[in-house]
Design goal:
Blueprint lengths: L1 H40 L4 H5 L6 H19 L8 H26 L3
Helix pairs in contact: 1-4
């Protein structure tokens, strides 16, 4: 019995570490996507600055959605099926990296 318990422990520890790592990555990806959307459509955000600050929140939301839709429409035929997994992984880690930048910025400055 003790040999069986010793054998299960490293696998359990590995599973726990993978769970915590996956959860942290998920949290960073969500922070990266949410923070970027906030920075796009905020009243003083990137879209408002691009249009000289005369754009309301609703206009910024509409422009952001149109931009995402156009990007998705143009990009759908540009990526071959064999590369989609690699491109998807790249986007996940890119959003996670942006989320890490936002987390450090919030911890350091107290604001996004």
């Amino acid at each position: 019995m003790t040999d069986l318990n010793k054998e299960k422990t490293p696998g359990s520890l590995r599973s726990a570490v993978q769970f915590v790592g996956g959860f942290c990555l998920l949290a960073l990806v969500m922070l990266g996507v949410g923070g970027t959307i906030y920075k796009l459509i905020a009243p003083e955000g990137w879209i408002a600055q691009f249009f000289g600050g005369n754009l309301g929140t609703l206009g910024a939301v509409v422009l952001a959605l149109v931009g995402v839709a156009l990007f998705a429409w143009f990009a759908q035929d540009q990526i071959t099926p064999t590369r989609r997994d690699k491109i998807g992984d790249l986007w996940v880690y890119l959003c996670g990296g942006v989320g890490l930048i936002y987390a450090v910025q919030m911890a350091w400055l107290g604001t996004l």
